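User: If only I could read backbone structure tokens as easily as an amino acid sequence. Those tokens are not coordinates but codes from a learned vocabulary of shapes. Could you go through the record with me and say what the backbone is doing? Here is the record:
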Amino acid sequence: MKGYACPYIFQRMIVHWDGTVPMCVNDEYETAVRGNILENSLSEIWTGASFQEARQRHIAGQRDEAYPCCAKCAVNRVGHGRETLAARTVLSAYRLLGRFLRPRVVSALEGNRR
């Protein structure tokens, strides 16, 4: 999505079994490794130049050209958060179930059976 900066690289850090820290969980082939915890601390990697550059590229809208994992990522195509169709669907289902289940849960807690 144009003008969209993926929140994942601002919120999450992934560490693989061998200590490598890819830019994102979607970087399954480690095309954008930001560091290794066997060489640097988590804090050094998170605040380091490599992650900072990646964040700036996301903000500038250059992620797809710079990072192959971003070009194929569904988050960049549909967005993230409450505004996405998937999130709206889940929230709607949750509200609907809440309306349906709430009376039954309250009744069960009070010791009544329906």
